[in-house]
Structures are given as structure tokens and as C-alpha cells.
Design brief:
The protein is mainly alpha-helical. It has one domain: Hypothetical protein af1432 (Orthogonal Bundle). 61% of the residues lie in helices and 0% in strands. It is built from nine helices and no strands. It starts with a helix and ends with a helix. It comes from Fructilactobacillus sanfranciscensis (strain TMW 1.1304). This is HD/PDEase domain-containing protein. Pfam families: HD.
Length: 215
């Protein structure tokens, strides 16, 4: 346990350094919430906690929406994990999770995840919905210059990985992604939490549109 904690402490410090300064809703506060949710899910789901937490700490480090040097970041993460004492097999487990868990990677074909991957995916997605999810969505939209809302721009019904991040509105993002992932959780605990958060988001979007139409 002490050796595991030592490794995870090093991963945490590395993640905090790499995610510092992000203002798009993917900063280290997001990572901390994903970790806490993963720990909650682990209480009901038998899985390798070290792999879960390692992937949770690192899941945004080489995300292509956050860095232009994906290959360089991946190489750096691999080297750091080896330096921290992870075996080659453990590193591959972590990468298999991170490289197949995102919404974009599952648009055109469902990616099979290990139990550990399902927990990390659920924990990450739960932070994208509900009250904090709403705040993060508007933060991301503001950083990228997206309109909050335009009734003339309809939500896209079908997206590919290539056009997923093409311009849309922040409100459309609820229809294009957030309401969907709330229905796509893997674990029983996550499904219960997601249902409540989806209802909250639906009420928010209804109120937002109502107030917008009063302008």
C-alpha cells in the first residue's frame, strides 16, 4: 500500500504540474473531482484501484483538445510512469483506458473498456454533467469563443470524431453530448447519480431558453 501511495503521489504531482493554468474546465480541480468520484465508485466495483487512479490523474494530459503535441505528451507520460515504477503491462493498461474512454473516440464505434476503464470513464463523465458540468460547459465555450445560444443553429444529430469540435453553441452541447452521456454510464452507482444530474441540466436548459426568449 505504501509503495502504491508513493507511486500515486508522484503521478498526482506530475498531473498537477501538467494541468496547471487550464481555464477551459479541465484544470486540476476537475482531476481532483474525478479522483474523488472514482474512489466512490471503487467502493462498489471490484477493480484495480492503482490503475483506476493513475488513469484518472492522467486522462487529460495528452487530450488533443488541450495540447497540440499529443505524441510528445504521450511519450513523456510513458517515461514518467516507467520512472515512477510502473511495469510495462501496467503502463499499457493505463494507456488503453485513456486512449479509448473519450466521447469523441466512441462516436463512430463503441470502445470496449476494462472494468477499470469503465470506472474512470464514469467518473470523468459525471463531472461533465450536473451543476458543475454546466459551469464547465460555459467555461469551455467561453475559452473557445463559442456562442452561448443561437436558436437558428440546431443541434447536430450525428457527429464524427473529425467534426465533433467544429463550431456549435454551448446550449447545443447539452443535446449533442451531455444528455447522451448521462444515459451511457457503465456502473450502477454512476447511473443513479447521472439520472439526477441529467434532470438538473434539463431544468436549467429549459429555464435558459425561457429567459432567452424574453429578450
Amino acid at each position: 500500500m505504501n509503495k502504491m501511495n508513493e507511486k500515486l503521489n508522484q503521478v498526482r504531482a506530475y498531473s498537477e504540474k501538467m494541468m496547471a493554468g487550464d481555464h477551459s474546465g479541465h484544470g486540476f480541480d476537475h482531476i481532483d473531482r474525478v479522483i474523488n468520484m472514482a474512489l466512490k465508485l471503487l467502493t462498489n466495483e471490484p477493480a484495480n484501484g492503482e490503475i483506476v487512479l493513475t488513469a484518472a490523474y492522467l486522462h487529460d494530459v495528452f487530450d488533443d483538445k488541450l495540447t497540440d503535441d499529443v505524441a510528445g505528451r504521450k511519450a513523456d507520460v510513458r517515461q514518467k510512469l516507467a520512472d515512477f515504477g510502473y511495469s510495462a503491462a501496467e503502463i499499457e493498461q493505463v494507456f488503453a483506458i485513456i486512449e479509448h474512454m473519450s466521447f469523441a473516440d466512441n462516436l463512430e464505434a463503441h470502445q470496449e473498456l476494462s472494468k477499470e476503464g469503465q470506472i474512470v470513464q464514469d467518473a470523468d463523465r459525471l463531472d461533465a454533467i450536473g451543476a458543475i458540468g454546466i459551469a464547465r460547459t460555459f467555461a469551455y465555450g467561453a475559452v473557445h469563443g463559442n456562442k452561448m445560444y443561437d436558436p437558428k443553429i440546431r443541434p447536430r444529430r450525428k457527429m464524427t470524431r473529425d467534426n465533433y469540435r467544429d463550431g456549435s453553441t454551448t446550449i447545443n452541447h447539452f443535446y449533442e453530448k451531455l444528455f447522451k452521456i448521462a444515459d451511457e454510464m457503465n456502473t450502477r452507482t454512476a447511473k443513479t447519480i447521472a439520472y439526477e444530474r441529467k434532470v438538473y441540466m434539463q431544468r436549467f436548459v429549459e429555464e435558459f431558453k425561457s429567459e432567452w426568449n424574453e429578450l
